[in-house]
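Section 5: illustrative case.
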């Protein structure tokens, strides 16, 4: 197949491109050229300043390719999704767009901007979506020169509506989980990996956070789900959740990291309110990914143990550029332990 990828030079895209090339497909990638990922030599690159998020224009070089499938990796809002739909309808066979599991109503409840009791779990592709749009808008609009200005118009629900609403360009949506592994700009594992590397005898977890469960996926496995959706025509007109089968609690997640690193410290569950938490841990975010497994034969190509080994190695060699002092305030943690009368010298995982 002739495949065009819009964006995709970040965490996921290079894996998807490499997998597609290994399957024998012709791939063109449209990006600014500011960052050149390590891709197979046969990949065609088209560079343009208009490839910045959000995409401002679709050059004729792209529509002239008449790709069988277009992959839009970075559709943040309705405007850039609609731009792609309008450009390729009647030209391409299908549009695959990357969405997020933040579309679900439970995400709004988790972050306290939607009311209500916990939603039924697990979340399927037909579960309730958020009723409040634009989850990352602030009270005041961001300045035009703010690199996160695009978040003012970020709304994956609107992206999905645009992609799935054009009959002349059948769409496929993939709702992605919290992705970990090499290239993770959020550094989801780092707060635990650093403490273990620093030989902290204890890691503190808020009681609610310790039991909270959310959807995760290792980068290469998530990329494989996208690759299958791109190359299998049965994905036409479908929406798929992508996530690991088991949504581990945060405490169990930390235990797995500890086992992988050989850390012999102790995980201490602290009564709620002793450690600040920024979300409502009564709202679990457990997602069902059985549809893509059943319909497209999806399964993880990197097993959990190896995924953690690779992820930890990445975090150790690629720490965040900026680390707030408060994030690793060990003195304050020791004070909490002292008040709880928990000896700091205890050193067993549990």
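Designed sequence:
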């Amino acid at each position: 197949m002739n495949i065009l990828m819009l964006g995709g030079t970040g965490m996921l895209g290079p894996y998807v491109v490499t997998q597609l090339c290994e399957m024998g497909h012709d791939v063109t990638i449209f990006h600014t050229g500011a960052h050149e990922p390590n891709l197979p030599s046969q990949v065609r690159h088209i560079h343009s300043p208009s490839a910045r998020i959000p995409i401002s224009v679709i050059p004729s070089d792209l529509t002239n390719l008449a790709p069988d499938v277009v992959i839009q990796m970075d559709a943040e809002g309705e405007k850039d999704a609609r731009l792609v739909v309008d450009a390729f309808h009647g030209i391409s066979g299908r549009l695959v767009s990357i969405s997020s599991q933040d579309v679900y109503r439970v995400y709004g409840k988790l972050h306290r901007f939607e009311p209500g009791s916990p939603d039924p779990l697990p979340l399927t592709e037909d579960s309730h979506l958020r009723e409040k749009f634009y989850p990352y808008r602030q009270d005041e609009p961001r300045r035009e020169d703010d690199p996160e200005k695009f978040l003012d118009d970020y709304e994956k629900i609107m992206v999905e509506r645009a992609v799935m609403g054009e009959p002349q360009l059948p769409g496929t949506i993939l709702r992605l989980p919290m992705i970990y592994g090499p290239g993770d700009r959020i550094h989801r594992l780092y707060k635990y990996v650093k403490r273990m590397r620093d030989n902290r005898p204890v890691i503190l977890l808020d009681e609610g956070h310790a039991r909270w469960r959310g959807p995760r996926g290792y980068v290469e496995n998530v990329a494989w789900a996208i690759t299958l959706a791109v190359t299998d025509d049965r994905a036409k007109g479908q929406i798929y959740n992508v996530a690991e089968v088991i949504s581990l609690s945060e405490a169990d997640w930390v235990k797995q990291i500890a086992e992988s690193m050989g850390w012999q410290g102790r995980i201490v569950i602290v009564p709620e309110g002793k450690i600040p938490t920024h979300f409502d841990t009564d709202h679990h975010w457990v997602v069902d990914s059985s549809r893509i497994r059943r319909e497209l034969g999806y399964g993880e190509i990197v097993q959990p143990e190896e995924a953690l080994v690779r992820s930890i190695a990445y975090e150790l060699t690629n720490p965040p550029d900026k680390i707030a002092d408060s994030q690793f305030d060990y003195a304050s943690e020791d004070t909490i332990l002292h008040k709880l009368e928990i000896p700091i010298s205890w050193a067993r995982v549990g």
